[in-house]
Amino acid sequence: MPDTPRARALGKELRAAREAAGLTMRELGDALGWSEAKVSRLETAKRALKPDAVEAILSVLRVSRQQRD
């Protein structure tokens, strides 16, 4: 679902969560074994956000189950 309103909204929320955690795109990418560019593409909806990728990001950012819902 790249570059749809829903994907852009999710990417925006992921970026906000990353920033709230005090991580840069590079730091998040390093923690996930991804490039900074991949993190950027996910946050800007230039790349499809798959459920497992979202789960991995939220886990690294330590977002609680309540917040995820």
UniProtKB/TrEMBL annotation:
All copies of domain HTH cro/C1-type, residue ranges: 14-68
Species of provenance: Saccharopolyspora rosea
Entries under Pfam families matching the protein: HTH_31
InterPro entries associated with the record: Cro/C1-type_HTH, Lambda_DNA-bd_dom_sf
Name of this protein: Helix-turn-helix domain-containing protein
Domain of life: Bacteria
Gene3D superfamilies attached to this UniProt entry: lambda repressor-like DNA-binding domains (1.10.260.40)
SUPFAM superfamilies recorded: lambda repressor-like DNA-binding domains
